[in-house]
Write a structure and sequence with these properties.
The complex is a heterodimer of chains A (319) and B (379).
Chain A lengths: L1 H33 L17 H8 L1 H34 L4 H13 L2 H11 L6 H8 L4 H6 L13 H8 L11 H26 L3 H10 L4 H12 L1 H16 L3 H7 L10 H11 L3 H30 L3
Chain B lengths: L3 E10 L2 E11 L4 E5 L6 H9 L6 E6 L2 E2 L10 E4 L11 H13 L2 H4 L3 H4 L3 H19 L14 H13 L5 E5 L7 H18 L2 E6 L2 H7 L2 E6 L2 E6 L1 H6 L4 H6 L6 E7 L4 E4 L2 E6 L5 E7 L4 E4 L8 E10 L4 E7 L5 E6 L1 H4 L7 E6 L5 E3 L5 E2 L6
Parallel strand pairs in B: 3-8, 3-9, 6-7, 7-8
Antiparallel strand pairs in B: 1-2, 1-4, 4-5, 9-10, 11-12, 11-14, 12-13, 14-20, 15-19, 16-17, 16-19, 17-18, 20-21
The chains are: A mainly alpha (319), B alpha+beta (379).
């Protein structure tokens, strides 16, 4: 009897376990296994290559560039988009009217498909046709150039400023210059992400009890900074943990802008992980290498999740 | 120590008038309670004194100086909130030190890293922590100092909130229903503790509550508020024994005062529900309301001279030292409550018919405008 009910129990959980393994776990395991091979889609067989794929990632300049481009992108977009999102949320929260209008406007980039918006940015930032460079160029020879020449500053030297250089030899090829491309892409990332962070912070702000601000006022918090330090920022702790995690994961996953505009170039300066996986595994049909990058990518995201759960959440949930 | 004076305070939210010209002199060192049903404007008044809300018109003066345009943090008042409003991310010690840190340390001394390097900071922090420890000792919360508010019980949080208000030695303590989140037993205990604390500190307490028992038990004076007005201001026994308004009489006292419809005849003689009170008032041929507190009703088993009301007992409430008899005046739907000693009601059971009569001179008559009408002398 006991034997039978055991079997029945296994029978009941079997479908769920099977689906979980087949859909959630198996793909990861297969990707992990493929990362040790030189498998190409369509090939009959493959060879085990051990850690060769991973070794390439640290030795070949393409992949070290990939890691540094990804890291730079994440480290730029995450802090700036969070700071801007928090700032916008605090400002919108403090205005009595038009708050909804601001909310909608700042949220527009989040709602718009990044791929479509990337094309708009590509056009706007086009070196010769784009309105950014045309606007900048129209300032040449006028007081604008004189102002941004900075020579009126008492401590300025005679070296030509950035603006004067642009007037003399052309403004940057935003996406075509490896000194600018990653930062331009990061700018679009920030532009797109901060509205989302703002909405999350706005939601967080509504849950801050008003009495705490009044208590702070009675306790002698006179400046906005005091109130922020004493009440707002600590009370937004849980929101911040969530926002940091979400923004970091989303920044790791940046793909549409790169695919639409730079294709990882120039000189691999915008060769971020997601695009690398796509290029290696799909375009070059190097499943082994693509899998290896995927595994590293998953590793980053996993570490992030663990850091969130064990380190940060414990300190920001006050109970 | 200084007086707080309110002159003709009005407050409107949109079109609703919340306060309608409040005049109030709060004496230095007294325990003044603002009591009234919810929505009477008592919390708004407290917050206007605190500076958390601005009055539509009128003046607030502290120690003779108008503070209408002085912000909350500069009025030197401390407040205990109903929700306690403790900073959840700070320990008890840090919570209590916050008012001192914000006032005594300069901006740079409070800065995270730079501040620690400043020479003037250490002695200040030391004296501030000494002040916190002193208050913790008074409130007996020394063992909780390193906990977060989330790890404390309601009563402990209440003490910490009190401690945070006390460390600064303010001009006055403002308390907004500080006991309403505690359970009944602790509330009764904290009543006496707060009153003792007030005596030992000697500082002005302005205390807001909807619980008339708290007002009666703790305060030197109580202001009964209703619909944005102070109906009566006076010592608790004065307000209880001599209410000037029907609404005050009904609000103060538990169980509630019995209100019976009555009438003053052509000679000013008052009768309530057919029973004469043998007293005269200065009103003729008018409907009045007669109020009799439960403890001023006497129980008799026979009726003499048409005095008193026939009363059917519907419920007998045993309070230990006393009994409350609930019932209706026969032939009407008027409910009455009488308070009696256990030995007087031993024979009375639910469903019995008895008689109630008012103790001579204890009934109160209220005119049609709710104002008290006093009995004429020697009648």
């Amino acid at each position: 009897m006991a034997q039978g009910s055991h079997r029945a129990a296994y029978g009941f959980i079997a479908p769920a376990v099977f689906l979980m393994i087949a859909i959630l776990i198996a793909p990861v395991v297969i990707a992990a296994a493929l990362s040790f091979t030189d498998y190409s889609l369509g090939n009959a067989g493959f060879d085990w290559v051990g850690l060769e794929n991973y070794d390439r990632m640290v030795s070949r300049s393409t992949y070290t560039k990939m890691l540094s481009a990804t890291a730079l992108y994440v480290l730029t977009v995450v802090p700036i988009s969070i700071a801007l999102g928090l700032g916008a949320a605090l400002l919108i929260n403090s205005v009595k009217r038009f708050g909804d209008i601001y909310k909608t406007i700042y949220f527009l980039p989040v709602m718009a498909a990044l791929l479509a918006m990337a094309l708009v940015w590509e056009f706007a930032l086009h070196p010769t046709l784009g309105m950014i460079n045309n606007t900048l160029a129209s300032g040449c020879g006028t007081w604008i150039e004189a102002f941004f020449g900075w020579h009126w500053l008492p401590w300025a030297d005679d070296a030509p400023s950035w603006f004067e250089n642009g007037c003399a030899s052309g403004f940057p090829l935003w996406f075509g210059d490896k000194d600018y491309s990653l930062w331009t892409v990061a700018f679009i990332g920030i532009w797109q992400a901060f509205g989302f962070n703002m909405v999350l912070y706005l939601a967080g702000l509504t849950s801050v009890p008003r009495e705490l601000y009044q208590a702070a006022a009675m306790d002698g918090a006179t400046t906005a900074w005091d109130r922020f330090r004493l009440v707002t920022w600590p009370m937004l702790g849980p929101t911040t943990v969530f926002v940091v995690t979400i923004t970091t994961i989303r920044s790791f996953q940046v793909f549409d802008t790169i695919e639409a505009i730079t294709q990882g170039g120039p000189a691999k300066s915008t060769f971020v992980m997601m695009f690398a996986i796509y290029e290696k595994a799909i375009q070059h049909n190097l499943m082994g290498m693509g899998s290896a990058i995927t595994v590293v990518f998953l590793g980053f995201v996993l570490i992030l999740t663990f850091v969130q759960r064990h380190l940060v959440e414990r300190r920001v949930h006050y109970s | 120590m200084s007086d707080i004076r309110l002159n003709a305070i009005f407050k409107t939210f949109g079109t609703t008038e919340v306060l309608r010209g409040i005049d109030l002199d709060i004496r230095a060192g007294e325990f003044l309670t603002l009591v009234g049903p919810s929505g009477c404007g008592k919390s708004t008044l407290l917050r206007i004194i605190a500076g958390l809300e601005t009055q539509t018109s009128g003046d607030v003066e502290i120690a003779g100086t108008p503070v209408n345009h002085v912000r909350a943090s500069d009025r030197d008042l401390a407040m205990v909130f109903q929700s306690y409003a403790l900073y959840p991310h700070l320990t008890v010690r840090q919570n209590m030190a916050t008012p001192l840190v914000l006032r005594d340390l300069t901006f740079w001394e409070r800065a995270p890293i730079v501040g620690h390097a400043l020479p003037g900071r250490r002695p200040k922090v030391k004296s501030l922590h000494a002040a916190v420890d002193d208050v913790a000792q008074v409130l007996k919360i020394e063992h909780l100092m390193d906990r977060k508010p989330g790890q404390l019980s309601g009563g402990q949080r209440q003490r910490v909130a009190l401690g945070r208000a006390m460390v600064r030695k303010p001009v006055a303590f403002l308390m907004d229903e500080p006991l309403s989140n505690l359970d009944a037993a602790l509330r009764v205990h904290m009543r006496s503790e707060l009153a003792e604390l007030h005596r030992s500190l000697g500082v002005t307490f302005i205390y807001v509550t909807h619980d008339q028992a708290e007002a009666l038990t703790m305060s030197n004076r109580m202001a009964v508020m209703m619909d944005g007005d102070i109906l009566q201001l006076g010592a608790p026994d004065e307000v209880y024994d001599d209410p000037k308004d029907r609404r005050v009489a009904e609000f103060v006292g538990s169980p509630k005062i019995n209100m019976l419809p009555g009438r003053a005849d052509g000679h000013g003689r008052v009768a309530a529900l057919g029973a004469p009170l043998h007293r005269h008032v200065g009103l003729q041929d008018q409907d009045v309301t007669v109020g009799i507190r439960p403890e001023h009703l006497q129980l008799t088993t026979t009726q003499a001279d048409n005095e008193g009301w026939p009363f059917r007992v519907t419920h007998k409430e045993n309070m230990g030292a006393d009994f409350f008899l609930h019932g209706t005046v026969n032939g009407s739907n008027h409910r009455m409550v009488a308070r009696a000693r256990p030995e007087d009601v031993a024979e009375v059971a639910i469903g019995h018919d008895v008689f109630l009569r008012a103790q001579s001179g204890k009934a109160m008559v209220f005119g049609g405008d709710d104002r008290r009408v006093y009995f004429a002398e020697g009648a």
